[in-house]
Amino acid sequence: MSRLFAVFVVFVTSLLMAGAAQAEVRVLTSIKPLQLIAAAVQDGVAIPEVLLPPGASPHNYALRPSDVRRVQSVDLLYWIGPDMEGFLPRVLKGRGLPTVAVQELPGLKLRYFAEDKHAHGEEADDHDHDHRPGSLDAHLWLSPLNARVIARKMAADLSAADPANAARYQSNLQAFEARLDALDLRLKARLAGIAGKPYFVFHEAFDYFEQAYGLKHTGVFSVAAEVQPGAQHVAAMRTRLQEVGKTCVFSEPPLRPRLAETLVAGLPVKLAELDALGGYTPATGQGYEQLLEKLGNDLAGCLESL
Question: pTM of the full predicted structure?
């Protein structure tokens, strides 16, 4: 009887050890674009989680108690940094597990709002209310070069945390980088025809993407969400549109500024959307490429239709 019990104990222990060895490494990212990069690295092993739901603002999201528990418990957490998710630093103080602010990774090519303004001689632009002069442009995931840096860090972290799947993570990383090479060629071909065409944005979020593909917005119609601009301000924005002629004005989903329709009424101007966050993009191995490709297609599609 004791021998049978000993065999049973060994059997149960081996099962528990096997289960522990195969336990998934839980990855949580703050925003969807980081989830998409992580999904490429974890493809076939696990699906990373994301903190913000579609449509939520990373600048001022209100964490629920369940969100705080997730932040505290996951094995690996990735966020852009304090220049993007201003709601997170206070909560992260209580977290003891590995946390990566990707804006601090070596090898990134970073941009700063004041530098871009002066470099392009856009003193006449309305300044984006969300972005202080001289502050970091934290929309860094829209550069394929930066996505590579982030993916390499994730692959290294996952390989260390989950050695059994290290070869898979490295293989996924290589496949991701090869797909980015192909995507880069497609986007350059797609966007070559709109270089130099004027367009406007409501939110200065696309500079990394624009730099990668030789584009530049003509101006930013900055509108604070809680403030309705006065008639004089709206008139000045309409004057700029009249001077340019046929053009597109891009907002970001899910909300279009309330003054958008008034701003373009009677002008040869189209309203369209560019989604920098890819809120509803499936978290698959190819999700990041889908985000960038949709961005390029939406931008080119509007400008080509004029």
Answer: 0.88
